[in-house]
Amino acid sequence: MKIEKIIELTAARVVAGSLKTAPEITKAFSSDLMSDVLTLDHHDIVLITGLANIQLLRTVEIADVPVVLLCRNKTATPEMIELANEIGIVFLETPFSIFRAGGILYENGLKPLY
């Protein structure tokens, strides 16, 4: 799924990263537990989360996750935005819940990681 479609379906806004360099997303994973994210060995996924801290970005950098969708109207701090741009992560914010965002993406053809 193209990142633009994810943005459209989840009423998201881009807060960091470049859509031009974003890969096509093949699967989605939802978690607030960064220990679970560290176990992933699949690339080209979107992480759907409600966790809004700098550790989120450190974790997705290690796990090689290219796109993060921050849910529940949470907002990234300036420090988070700066780091996301620095490491090349596309960072999105949506007013939707994790459940709603994941459900909409699934309904529109994005497969779950598990």
Q: How would you describe what is shown here?
A:
The structure is a single chain. Strands 1-5-4-3-2-6 form a six-stranded mixed sheet. The chain has a single domain (3-112), classed as Udp-n-acetylmuramoylalanyl-d-glutamate--2,6- Diaminopimelate Ligase, Chain: A, domain 1, CATH 3.40.1390. The chain has helices at 3-10, 34-37, 54-63, 78-87, 98-107, and strands spanning 13-16, 27-30, 45-49, 67-70, 90-93, 111-112. The protein is 37% helix and 20% strand. The protein is globular and about 35 Å long. Strand 4, helix 4 and strand 5 form a beta-alpha-beta unit. By secondary structure, it is an alpha/beta fold.
What's the arrangement of secondary structure elements?
Elements: H1 3-10, E1 13-16, E2 27-30, H2 34-37, E3 45-49, H3 54-63, E4 67-70, H4 78-87, E5 90-93, H5 98-107, E6 111-112
Parallel strand pairs: 2-3, 2-6, 3-4, 4-5
Antiparallel strand pairs: 1-5
CATH class: Alpha Beta
The H/E string reads HEEHEHEHEHE
- In helices, the fraction of residues equals 25-40%
Q: What is the CA–CA distance across the termini?
A: 17 Å
What's the Cα radius of gyration?
Answer: 12 Å
Mean residue pLDDT: 95
CATH fold-type name = Udp-n-acetylmuramoylalanyl-d-glutamate--2,6- Diaminopimelate Ligase, Chain: A, domain 1
What are the key terms here?
six-stranded mixed sheet, Udp-n-acetylmuramoylalanyl-d-glutamate--2,6- Diaminopimelate Ligase, Chain: A, domain 1, 114 residues, alpha/beta, single chain
Summarize it.
This protein has helices at residues 3-10, 34-37, 54-63, 78-87, 98-107; strands spanning 13-16, 27-30, 45-49, 67-70, 90-93, 111-112.
